[in-house]
Amino acid sequence: NVFIEPDETAVTMGRGTRRPLAAIIHDLSAGGAQLSVISSDVREGQRLSLRFDFGAEEFQIAAEVRWVRHGRRGNGQYVGVRFTELTASDRKRIVSQITQEQRRRTRDSA
Q1: Burial of residue 14, with CB atoms counted within 10 A of its CB: 0-12 exposed, 13-18 middle, 19 or more buried
Q2: What pLDDT, on a 0 to 100 scale, did the predictor assign at position 67?
Q3: Global pTM?
């Protein structure tokens, strides 16, 4: 799971309050991700704070929205983000999660 929160420099959402948006990860790499969100408040160029919850651990990563595509029939958006200010520790966590997911899929398909 990943939760998106606009950072201090991003456009505020709602009535002057920052409200987190839940998102689903469709593609994850050490440099960025493709997410889907129900909201239509996300804009290209917007800076976000992504809070990842990989079960045993939770951490935040700064990201910039690189592209936005609207879902079918106007339902939600697909969002491509590039991670910014990524620490070596954060990169290691992401790569570890990708490796675990690949192993799980391989095991499940056997």
Answers
A1: exposed
A2: 95
A3: 0.74
- Side-chain-facing half-sphere of 36: CA atoms under 13 Å: 10
Q: Where are the beta strands (DSSP E) in the chain?
A: 2-6, 21-28, 32-37, 47-53, 58-70, 77-84
Alpha carbon distance 2, 60 (integer Å): 9
Neighbour count for residue 31 (Cβ, 10 Å): 11
Q: Is 106 left (phi over 0), alpha (psi -120 to 50) or beta?
A: alpha
Neighbour tally for 49: CB within 10 Å: 17
Amino acid letter, residue 77: Q
pLDDT, tens digit (0-9, with 9 covering 90-100), for 52-99? 777 677 778 888 999 999 877 667 888 899 999 888 988 888 888 888
Give 21's contacts (C-beta < 8 A, 6+ positions apart). Answer: 3, 4, 5, 13, 37, 38, 39, 41, 42
Q: Residue 50 in contact with residue 64, Cβ under 8 Å?
A: no
Overall average pLDDT of the 29-37 stretch: 87
The predicted structure's pLDDT at residue 84: 92
